[in-house]
Design a protein that fits this description.
Layout (H helix, E strand, L loop, with lengths): L1 H5 L3 H12 L5 H14 L2 H6 L3 E3 L3 H8 L6 E7 L6 E6 L8 E6 L2 E6 L2 H18 L1
Antiparallel strand pairs: 1-2, 2-3, 3-4, 4-5
Length: about 130
């Protein structure tokens, strides 16, 4: 039972974060979340995105938001030599499928129309890296 308590399902963690942060994630993110979390645990993801982690707790999200515009809701952080890249939902974009953006230092440096488009890009990056390796 203790193991069950410590190992909250990904869906439960996501719902807890929504309650704590006061934000509803886009439906596509919620529906693809388990698959996304599984992908983050693969060797291919770690090779393509070596120092990247999912942000799933209110403290992690709050820390990432300290240096981003308030309209961005971070969900992933990639450490870089000078400053981290923050992957976030742009809440000013037309919902319900908010754009995914990368905030780096003081600007948006990349964006995708929606989470499914972003997720496909992640898969392509993994495939490219695996072909080179």
């Amino acid at each position: 039972m203790l193991g069950d308590k410590r190992r909250m399902s990904a869906e439960e963690r996501l719902q807890e974060t929504e309650r704590t942060v006061g934000f509803r994630y886009p439906l596509s993110f919620v529906s693809m979340f388990e698959e996304f979390v599984s992908l983050l645990d693969t060797d291919g993801f770690r090779r393509a995105f070596p120092d990247t982690r999912l942000l799933l707790s209110a403290p992690e999200i709050a820390a990432a938001r300290e240096n981003t515009p308030t309209a961005l809701l971070p969900f992933m952080r990639e450490e870089q030599p000078s400053w981290p890249d923050i992957y976030a939902f742009d809440r000013t974009s037309d919902g319900p499928e908010f754009q995914v953006v990368v905030w780096s230092d003081h600007a948006i440096v990349m964006d995708w129309q929606s989470f499914p488009v972003f997720f496909q890009w992640v898969r392509e990056q993994i495939a490219k890296y695996d072909h080179v390796a």
